Amino acid sequence: MSYIPLRYLAEGIGAEVTWDNEAQSVWVKSGNDKMQFWIGKDFMELNGTKKNIGSKVFVNTDKRTVLPLRFITELLGWDVNWGQQDRSVTLTKSM
User: What are phi and psi of 48, to 5 degrees?
Assistant: First the structure.
């Protein structure tokens, strides 16, 4: 499974990212969508609806909030393709 720092991806596609220290969570706003991710939880909320992530959100050694790449990109409307030969990940916007 590939993981990505949430802020890198979200800001890279123009979303707004906010840290909530009290709740130990990250808010991502993209268009009309609001997402909340909690550190140490394997679920999130999208516009108030709970969704299973598949693994826990965590903070890596660089102090970045990290979650599975495929989950967040597909949630935001991107297709993810794994290149087995060169071990690459290609993201394309779903139409």
Answer: 85, -5
